């Protein structure tokens, strides 16, 4: 681990801008991203640059942006302080999440993202497994009731003297 940290420090000493200049040079020579990452790591030590970083910079350079600066505003916005939502919920426990989001000036919407190949395959596998589970063991037929806290079901073969909370 110390070896990797030393190499990362070496990369910082070389400077990110200098590494990016080398990536641009390799692109102009017609090299591939994997080959570029390997040659930089051979020259400056393992862990200096990974293939994903080289791919990112190749993409930017190919799109005409040959500056070595990070794009401003591309980072994820800072998360809110954990105490803010807690204080809002404690002050008004009956408010909806939408009302809380409005009060915090944050969106209550889910923003989809593009999946890479592995994520698409993984999502397909999970969905297939869930559909197969539904065919083999149809849990929806066993649901007795549900409320705002979740779904409750009776256990097979046990009289409904008590409820068990079902984890989905």
Automatic annotation (TrEMBL):
Any single GO molecular-function term of the entry would be: double-stranded DNA binding
Give GO cellular component annotations, separated by semicolons: condensed chromosome; nucleus; site of double-strand break
Boundaries of each Mos1 transposase HTH domain copy? 16-65
Gene3D superfamilies, from UniProt?
1.10.10.1450, Ribonuclease H-like superfamily/Ribonuclease H
Return the Pfam families for the record.
Answer: HTH_48
Domain of life here?
Eukaryota
Span of the secretion signal? none
| GO BP annotations listed | DNA double-strand break processing; DNA integration; double-strand break repair via nonhomologous end joining; mitotic DNA integrity checkpoint signaling; replication fork processing
Question: Which InterPro entries does this chain map to?
Answer: Mos1_HTH, RNaseH_sf, Transposase-MT_Hybrid
Protein name, per record: HTH_48 domain-containing protein
Q: Which organism is it from?
A: Heterorhabditis bacteriophora (Entomopathogenic nematode worm)
């Amino acid at each position: 681990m110390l070896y990797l940290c030393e190499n990362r420090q070496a990369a910082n000493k070389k400077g990110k801008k200098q590494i990016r200049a080398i990536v641009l040079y390799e692109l102009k020579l017609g090299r591939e991203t994997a080959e570029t990452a390997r040659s930089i790591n051979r020259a400056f030590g393992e862990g200096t640059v990974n293939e994903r970083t080289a791919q990112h910079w190749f993409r930017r350079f190919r799109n005409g942006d040959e500056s070595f600066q990070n794009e401003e505003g591309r980072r994820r916005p800072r998360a809110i302080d954990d105490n803010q939502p807690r204080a809002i919920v404690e002050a008004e426990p009956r408010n909806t999440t939408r009302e809380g989001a409005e009060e915090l000036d944050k969106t209550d919407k889910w923003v989809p993202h593009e999946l890479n190949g592995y994520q698409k395959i993984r999502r397909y596998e999970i969905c297939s497994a869930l559909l197969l589970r539904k065919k083999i063991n149809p849990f929806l037929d066993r649901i007795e009731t549900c409320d705002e806290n979740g779904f409750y079901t009776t256990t097979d073969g046990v009289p409904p003297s008590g409820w068990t909370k079902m984890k989905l």
